[in-house]
Specification:
This protein has 53 residues and is of the alpha+beta class. It has helices at 7-13, 30-41, and strands at residues 21-25, 45-49. It is 36% helix and 19% strand.
Length: 53
């Protein structure tokens, strides 16, 4: 079975994340939100976890 490259290879290398699931905490604003958008734009299924005030 082929090894899966690290997520950073996909993220920075422009790879396809279709079929991958990513969980991001603190993603309602700032860096977390931008990371969620970037990963989703590459095809990842992104779940964001935030807390309410």
């Amino acid at each position: 079975m082929a090894k899966t490259p690290p997520l950073t290879t996909y993220f920075w290398g422009g790879g396809d994340l279709t079929g991958k699931t990513v969980l991001i905490t603190g993603s309602s604003v700032g860096l977390g939100a931008e990371t969620a958008r970037a990963l989703a734009s590459k095809g990842a299924s992104v779940t964001i976890v935030v807390r309410s005030a």
